[in-house]
Amino acid sequence: MFNSISHLKVQALIDDTKELTKGLKKRRLAFKDEFDKAIQNQPDLLSQKSLLDSYYTKLHTEVKTFLTNDEIIAYLSSNARSSTPQAIYKFKLKLKHKVLEPRYSGGFDLQFSGDFNDYIGAITKETIGGGHGKSYYSGYATIKKDGLRTFTEGQTLEAWANHSAMSLNPFPIINNKISIKEIERKIMNYYTPNTTKAFDDLVNNFNNL
Predict the structure, then answer these.
(1) What is the DSSP string of 128-182?
(2) What is the rounded CA–CA span in Å between residue 121 and residue 111?
(3) Which of 192, 185, 139 is nearest to 165 (CA)?
(4) Sign of the C-alpha dihedral, residues 114, 119, 122, 125?
(5) Residue-level pLDDT at 45
(6) pLDDT value at position 209?
(7) CB-based contacts of 3: which residues, under 8 Å, 6+ apart?
(8) pTM of the predicted protein model
(9) Residue range of the domain that includes 99
(10) Which pLDDT score is estimated for 7?
(11) In total, how many domains does the chain have?
């Protein structure tokens, strides 16, 4: 007996968790090593800021991602984050290695929105992302097990809530051309394609009634 329609899509959470956690430790190390190497080789901090910016601009230009530089700058700004060339480079490396950097309380990576942190956190029970804490999700009834992992009602409910929040994001379009909602949608499809599509299908089914 399912208490929420979101529970019907638990397999999508399982599939995304498998993909996101496969090789995660290596991806995190690769991200850290690449960024640390950039810092070690950067111009002296006492140098002109223009030299530092030029250095990181060259680096981030070499990292190709599914977001444009303008989209990344708009997204970082919408999350009240710096959009310096160094910040853009760091964000691109996270996309490249498909990681988040849990530097802040609750496991959050503040270069990404709170909703996205919570979304991916709910899907993976915070193996990646932030949110309420693993114990919060474990306090709910288990819907399905996959090996040693359990997937609970709390995970599907929270993921569904954040999918809805991001899909209805009222944040304005930047310069009449860049939509934060569309940027976040690209990020959702990249990190969590199965869950995003599964919940999209639920929404579309409702709209077709």
Answers:
(1) SS-SS-HHHHHTSPEEEEETTEEEEHHHHHHHHHHHHHHHT--PPEETTTEEHHH
(2) 15
(3) 185
(4) negative
(5) 72
(6) 46
(7) 153
(8) 0.91
(9) 5-207
(10) 79
(11) 1
